[in-house]
Fold:
Amino acid sequence: MDIRSQVSMVFHLDKCLGCHTCSIACKNIWTDRKGAEYMWWNNVETKPGTGYPGKWEDQKIFKGGWIREDGKLKLRAAGKKKGLFNLFHNPNMPVIDDYYEPWTYKYLDLIQAPAADDQITARPISLITGKPMDIKSGPNWDDDLSGTPDYARNDPNLENVSPAEREAMFQLERMAFYYLPRMCNHCLNPACVASCPSGAIYKRGEDGVVLINQEVCRAWRMCVSACPYKKVYFNWNTGKSEKCILCYPRLESDQAPACMHSCVGRIRYLGVVLYDADKIHEAASSDENELVNNHLDCLLDPHDPQVIAAAKANGIADTTIAAAQKSPTYRFVKEWGLALPLHAEFRTLPMLFYVPPLLPVMASLAKVNHDERGENLNPVAKHWSDNWLYDTSTEELWGTIDQARFPLKYMANLFSAGDEGRIADALKKLMAVRIYRRFKTVGDVTEEKADAALADTGLTAEMAEAIYFMTSLPQMKDRIVIPPAHREHAIEMLENTGDAKGSIGFGTLNSPQRGN
Amino acid sequence: MLNNFLFVALPYAALSVFLVGTIFKYRSLKFQYSSLSSQFLEGNRLFWGVIPFHWGILVVFLGHLTAFLVPRGILAWNSRPLRLLILEMTGLAFALCVLVGLVLLLYRRLTNERLKVVTNRMDQVIEWLLLVQVVLGCWIAVGYRWGSSWFASDLSPYLWSIFRLDPQTTAVSAMPLVVKLHIIAAFLIVLVFPFTRLVHFLVAPFHYTWRPYQRVIWHWDRRTVRRPESSWNQHPPRNN
Ligand code: HEM
Ligand code: SF4
Ligand code: SF4
Structure:
């Protein structure tokens, strides 16, 4: 057993309102620079949709992540042989147009243009060439299902969803969507690290943050295509790759990462988990249907005395262990079994987990209610009925899950490597907590029914209360539990990050000036 | 006099600048050690230029290196005319790859709006210099079929004499003009090397082949840092 600690995240998708505040917070702090304009280390995409960069999930295009071939774990299109052979030209590299060309407008024209007969306009100007350009796409072009034929219908996760189910998803009156905020997963088996020929990318032992040493990056640009989540970005100006740094300067000074601090929906949780590094390889090479299980098996119980002893022997600080015991991530992922990794089948063992969204799935509970108000709406508009949220009258509590508006298959393609049962479990738990709370607060559900719902999903009343608390009432200190960066180390860290540990281009001693 | 300047002073100046320049840059301006890939802005035309260019130049470079290091081997190989021809033809074929690749690369750089933004003066200087050098090289290969033997018998000793700090220019002075120009351009390239993207050649990532795939870095030795008996003045390991 080789116990290490990892700062790990949970995003509660039912709570995400798609406001993009996280993305803006991150951009303002880290990527508001020349060459980084197009980068969104944190971005929020609408699902179903093709995301950013377009169709990143379809590994037939950029060929990222790991595959298992003859029982062996291999990078799909990088690694020692393929990577070095393709060093001069990476055949799978996304280019700027796969993201979008960044632009601004010639605002000065609005006030400086001479008097003329026609309306003055501010023309769009490319932030790369400085020349006028036609805007073809931009950040969140697919927001809220806009451009559905181009975006939502091309979602790679629809691959094995039946045509009938697809049609049902996109019927105008039945359309549903949810938001998927994404950032680097700070994986346990990162493909970016493994693909980097210079060894510029590394995982910090103490907290598992994955960083790119800007002084060692040589623009071999293998990481850009190898990260299956497309979370390594190429800075075309400095000629270096960049990625989310989990705001490590903030973490080291006990502040929440910018995207988490600013999150309006408070969907983001952060905490330490202890894991067994000896299990990584085995977990990443598991059979497809065992992947999620084995991935979650790497995470250890921070209350187990054996684990604690082994952690101490490995030099993990007592304060870190204490933080792990209070970790909201551990509770969501392991205790409650609510949060799942995104696309476990990429085999990087992502350390960002998602509570799958219940609301868009269950919205199909609504029976079209031909009451007076409903009749007054035009036929295309949605008919709302007051009891749309939970139809608690049915005897079969879970029947509705299978008739969900979002096919479970689709959700399973995203969050459980195709295992519909797992998604159904998580959704049922979320529903059970709601039924239980409805019994408590509204009272139109009987106690037996609430208890039955909990029992069915393996929850206890205590757990339901805890989940309810962590979902609806938590303060910042409950949601974000940062392990203390030991001051004696922190001083060293801040003294000369670049010199001793590598860096990401901020706070290095040299200015990040492009080579010649 | 001119010979002394071109074949003694220039080489020493070039080699000194190369050494001091690359080492200083590596130690103090490490950020600038990069291949400065432009694939992100333009990927298709790059392929047709960069692939023939690099495979070509690597073979040609290795050829020159061999002739410099083991001149006798080359002479022995060339002792039969057919083998000399094979060597020359192979060299020429790869040199032509370099030529075609380089022309495409230069054309791409000068015509693409996006690439103009990331093309600075040194990018152009080095590509033009390389172009001149390759053209001269091809010219020698076509015009003087026994070029490889010359290199081995006359130029290799000259280069060695430079490294032995006892420059002997007699053999070089007797060479045809094209060969002289080829030598001069070579040292010019060495001279500007540290100020161009060519430094990426020095950091080619061969160590990737023997390192483990994953890299985890601890700031301190994790197992001793919290042990009371380990001393406080321990320095954190240098990882990079
Ligand atoms: C094993 C050694 C080498 C490796 C791995 C290597 C790799 C690379 C890479 C990745 C690029 C960037 C291509 C892109 O834009 O994406 C590049 C560009 C370039 N390399 Fe190399 N290279 C090597 C050796 C050399 C040598 C020996 C020379 C010349 C003496 C050279 C000259 C150039 C030039 C001039 C460019 C710029 C091409 C352009 O974009 O116009 N390289 N190299
Ligand atoms: S998600 Fe982050 S850690 Fe994982 S492979 Fe991509 S860049 Fe690396
Ligand atoms: S943790 Fe920091 S760097 Fe990473 S996405 Fe959030 S704001 Fe950006």
Q: What stands out?
A: The domain at 2-212 of chain B is CATH 1.20.950.20 (Fumarate Reductase Cytochrome B subunit).
